Amino acid sequence: MSAPLPLFIAPFSFPTFLWGIFGLTLIVFCFYSLVLFYHWKTYGVGFQTGPFVSLIYLGVSSLFLFTMAASLALL
Amino acid sequence: MRIDLQPNEQIIRSAVKHWWYMCTKGAAILGLFFLALVAVELVSGFAEGAHLPFPSEPVVAFALAFFALILWMAFFTFWTDYYLDAYYVTTERIIYVEQKSFFNREISSFRIDRIQDIAADTPGFIATMLRFGDVRITTASALQPFVMRTVPNPEELKNLIIGYIPVHSRQQNCNEIDSTNI
Fold it and tell me: Where do the H-state alpha helices sit in B85-135?
């Protein structure tokens, strides 16, 4: 039942393992962003927690996520 | 942001921490990213020189982008903490809203006429140059002083609050001090 981690990941190839990390990152990122925007919307103080800053946050984040996905596609 | 005020109570000043606080956080995060870049360069150079295996470029790019995303999210956690922490000075009270973490928000307040002592503290060279510091307020009811940390223009804020302490309350506090000295 409780196999050591290297044994658990052994059946997966290295790229598959990295795609798994990417998927997990995407899920965590989406959840975090929802929590962040919930707080901004509920307790927001104006420009600093408004749509413009939200767009910058999402834009730069998607750039990092795209870089991660593109790197994996090149493997 | 919605704060329940009493009838005839008005907000006269609101303050968030000084921008320098956010700058230090941002610089630390940027520094960590550059540290990672330098580490990758050094290790790849060493591995090449010593003929050791080193991950391919896409793997390095993946790792760096992953690290950058984590730092970016950390930066916005600080950003949220920075902008959702706020002090409000009203005609009746001082209200402090503290976003301790996500889903942990604390709003505390005390009446201005309960203030016994108030002091502005500007610690260090940068604080003096950029004019920020702490305002320490001792009230009649609390054991620990209430500290408004890293606020801009602490001296001005202190004088503003003193101006709103009712005159009878000031005289009463002075009388208490005089009687304790005797």
Answer: 125-130
**Which chain B residue has the Cα nearest residue A62?**
B69
Interface ipTM: 0.87
- Enter the DSSP assignment of B91: S
CB spacing of B69 vs A61 below 8 angstroms: yes
Closest by CA to B98, choosing from B80, B110, B111, B72, is B80
Q: Tally Cβ neighbours within 10 Å of residue B69.
A: 22
The chain B residue lying nearest A37, using CA atoms, is B80
Q: What is the pTM of this model?
A: 0.80
Burial letters B74-107, b for 16+ CB under 10 A, else e:
ebbbbbbbbbbbbbbbbebbbbbbebeeeeeeee
Per-residue tens of pLDDT for chain B, all 182 residues: 567 788 888 888 888 889 999 999 999 999 999 999 999 999 988 888 888 888 888 999 999 999 999 999 999 999 998 888 888 899 888 998 888 888 888 888 888 888 888 999 998 899 999 999 999 998 887 778 888 888 999 999 999 988 888 765 555 555 555 555 54
Q: Which residues of B touch A56 (CB under 8 A)?
A: none
Helix (H) or strand (E) holding B158, with range, is helix B154-164
Q: Is the dihedral of CA B121, B151, B114, B108 positive or negative?
A: negative
- Dihedral of alpha carbons A21, A24, A29, A30, sign: positive
Beta-carbon-side half-sphere exposure of residue B87 (alpha carbons within 13 Å): 23
